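Worked example 2:
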Amino acid sequence: MRSLVVERESWPIDGSFTISRGTKTSAHVVTAHITDNGFTGRGECVPYARYGETLDSVVEQIELQRAFIENDADKEHLQSLLPAGAARNALDCALWDLAAKQAGKRVWELADIAAPASTVTAYTLSLDTPDNMHAAAIRHSGRPLLKLKLAGAGDIERVTAVREGAPDSRIIVDANEGWTIKDYDVMVPKLLQLGVSLIEQPLPVSDDAALASVDRPIKLCADESCHDTATLDGLRGRYDVVNIKLDKTGGLTEALALQKAALELDFEIMVGCMVATSLAMAPATLLTTNAIIVDLDGPLLLGKDRPHALDFKHYSVAPPVSRLWG
C-alpha cells in the first residue's frame, strides 16, 4: 500500500537573495515522499507568495489529496485534482520519481524524450547597489551567462557596473514586474548597447498589453505571465520567450506539455527555477534540450545542498543521478 509523507524544510541561502519584491535569507520548501512496495519517489516545491502560496497552504493542499495519492492516483489523475502550482509540483515530481524507480528506468525514458545533457546554466546576481553588483560580477566574471535582478530606478547603473566587471559574460536581466512602460522605453536602447540579450518580465502581468505595441530589439521573456498551456495564447505578440518553471506549471507533466505547445506557437524556451535544492532542479533538467536559456542555479545560491546533488562543474548543470531523483 502506498504512503505519503509531507515535510517542510528550510535551507540557508549563502548570504541573502534580493529581487524587486524583497529579500530572503533561507529557502523554505515542501517535499513529498510517496512510498509504494519499497520504492520511494520524492518531489520538492517552493511555495511562492507572489501566487498566494505559503508553506501552510501548500501542505494543506497536498494533505487534502492524501487519500487519492495513497489509493494509487497517477500523474494524469493528479492534473485534475490540483491546479497548477507548488503543491501539484511536489506530488507530480514524486510520482515521476516513483515510477522511474519501480520501472528501473530513467525518467526521460518513461517520458520518451532525449536524455538531457550537461548544459550551461545562468548564475544570478542578486539585486543590490551598482558597486556591490560590480564586485559580484568580478567574482563571477568567468561564468559565460549572468542573470541580473533589476528593479527600475538605478538599473542602467547596475547593468553598466556588471558589464564592466564581467566584460566577456553574456548578460540577461530580470525585472520581476518592477518596470513601467516608460522605464522600458528609456532603458531598452541603453541595455542593447550594454549587450543584454534577454529581458525577463519587465512589466506587471496586468500591464502585458502594453508590450504588444513596443519594439522588441531585445528578446522579451514571460515569467510571471506564463504558468501553463492555458496562459500561452495571451502572450502572443507580446513575448518572444517563455520561462518554464515547475512550481508554476504544477510539475513535470504540465511542463512537458507547455514546452511542446510553446514550441508549436514559435515561442523560444527558457527553463527557470526558484531558489531551492537540487531535488527541485532535477526534474527541470529534462526541459533543457530545447531551451535557449537554462537558469537552474538555485542550489548554487544555497549554503548547502542535498546528498547526491546535481553536478555544476564547468558552469553547467548535469542531469541528476538516480539516487537524487528520476
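The first helix runs from residue 55 to 64. The two ends are 21 Å apart (CA to CA).
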